[in-house]
Amino acid sequence: MHAKKGGWIPYTKLAVAVIGSYVMLYPLLWMLSASFKPKSEIFRDAGLLPKTVTLENYINGWQGIGGISFGHFFANSFFLVILAIIGNILTCSMAAYAFARLDFSMKKTFFGIMLASLMLPHHVTLIPQYVFFFQLKWIDTYLPLLVPKFLAAEAFFIFLMVQFIRGLPYELDQAATVDGCGPIQTYTRIIFPLLLPALVTTAIFTFIWTWNDFFSQLIYISNPQKLTVTLALRSFLDSMGDSSWGYLFAMSVLSLLPIFLFFVFSQRLLIEGISTTGLKG
Amino acid sequence: MSIISRWWKRNKVALLFLSPWLLGLLTLSLIPMMVSLYLSFTNYNLFQSPDWVGMTNYINLFTNDTRYAKALEVTFIYVFVGVPLQLTLALALAMFLNRGLAGLELFRGIFYIPSLLGPSVAIALLWRKVFGSDGLFNQLVAPFGIEPRSWIGDPDTSLLTLILLHVWQFGSPMVIFLAGLRQIPKDYYEAASIDGAGRISSFFRITIPMLTPIIFFNLVMQIINAFQAFTSAFIVGGNGGVLDSTLFYTLYLFIAGFNNFQMGYASAMAWILLLIIGFFTALFFLSSKKWVHYEN
User: Fold this and answer.
1) Cβ of A184 and B109 within 8 Å?
2) Is ipTM > 0.85 here?
3) DSSP letters for A50-71
4) Domain A75-225, CATH class in plain words
5) Facing A280 at nearest CB: one of B17, B172, B178
C-alpha cells in the first residue's frame, strides 16, 4: 500500500522530516547554545556549537534581580503550580462526577453553561475580578491566582473528566451501591481512583498552563519577593536592558526546562489528551 | 412533602459536589460579566465610585480613538492571516506524517514542542532577540543579500514576526488532525482507488470531507485563542511596538485598564471583544451545516 520496499520515497520523506525538525527546533537550539556562549560570541555567530563553552551566564543569571536569586522565583512558581494542580484535581473531579453520574435539576442547562464557559474570553470578567480582589486586599498575594483553581474555574478539565467517567462501566457504581456505598463513597472509593489517567493529564496541563501563564501574574503580582519565573524574566529584561542577553537566555532555558521534562516523560499522555479533547497545547 | 424538601432531597448530593464550581461560576464568571457590562457604561478608576456616562465609552472607542482602530486592524490581520496559515501547515504536516514514515512518534513530538513552549515569556524574549537588529535572523538571511535591520523595529514587518511565532506553534492542531486522519477508514481510499481516483481527488473527495468536523473545531478554537493573544506582543513589542504596529486588542485593553486605570473604558473594550468573538463563533456554527460533514 505504501511505497515499494526499497523505494526511495521513504528515504526522501525521512530526509524532509529531519530537515523540517531542524528548522522548527533551530531557534530553541540556538538559544540553548547561546546560553553557553560568552557575551562576545552570542550575536556574532549563528552556529549552534559554541566555540568556547562557559557557565558564566548561568552563574551570573542565577543571582537574579535586586539580590533575590532565581532559586527564589523558581520556588514561587513551583508553589503556585503545585497548589493549582491540587485545586484543579479536587474541584474539577467533583464537578465532573456530578455531571457524569448524579441526577439533579436542570442538569442539561448547567452542562451547557459549563461548555459555553470554555469559550468565554476571560477579559470580559477580568476587570470586575480585579476590582473584587482589590477590595478583598488580595492584590500582590497568590490568592487571585489560586482561589479560582479551587473553584473549578478551568472547565476544560471538568469536560475532560466527564468524558472519562462516562467511559467507566456503570456496573461499578451499582456494585458499590449494593455494597452500601453512598454517592460520596462511590466518588472517593471507586471513581476518583479510577480517574487517575485523567487526573494525570489534568496535572500535566495545569502545570504547563500555570507555569506559562503571564497575563494574570502580571496584573496581580508586583512585589519582587513574590515574582514567579515568568515575571522575573520580564523584570530581568527591563532592569538589564539589552546588555545581558546571555544571562537572560540562560534563565529562559531554565524556565523552559520543567515543561520540557514533563513533555519528555509524559509525551503519550499529553498527546492523547490533546487528541481526544482538543485541549489547546 | 413540600416541593422545597423534595427538591432538596433530589439535589443535595449533587449540590455538594458542584458547590465549588457553582460558587466559581457565580463569583468569577456570571456576576463579573454583569458588573463589567455595567462598568462599560461608566467612568471608573478603581479608587472613586463609578460614574454613569451612558454610551460614551462605546462612542469614543469607535469615533474618537485612533489607537483602538489600530488595535482592531492589527488584531484582525493577526487572526485572519495567522490562523489559516497555521492550520494549513498543521494539516499539511499531519498528512505528511500520517503515512509511510518511520519514527512518526518522534517527529510528532518534535513538531509539537514549539506549541508547548511557544506561549511562554522565554520564547517571546527569544523572538525579540532573533528578529532584532543584531539578531539571528539577519545572520541567516545575509547570504541571500538581505540588508540587516530590526524586523521588530520596522512597522512593516513587526506584525509578521508575531504571525510567524503563531504559525510556528502549529503542533497542537497538527496532533488533532493526525488523530482525525487515523479515524478515516482505509477501505474508503481502497474503494476510491479501485474506482480510479488519484491521490489528489482522494484528498478532496475523502480526506477533506471526513476531516471537516476537526477543521471546524480547530478553526473555532484557534480563532478564539488568537483574538486573545497577549504575551508575545507585550514582550516583543512593548506597549504596542513601533507606530502601534503590534498593538494587539488585549494589549490595548491592558494599557487602558491597568496603566491608565480607565476601567470603564477597558470594560467596554472587553464587551466588544466578546461580541466580536461571539459573532465569528456564531458565523462558523451557522455555516457549519453547509460544509461540515458528520458521520452518523
Assistant:
1) no
2) yes
3) -SS---HHHHHHHT-BTTB-HH
4) mainly alpha
5) B172
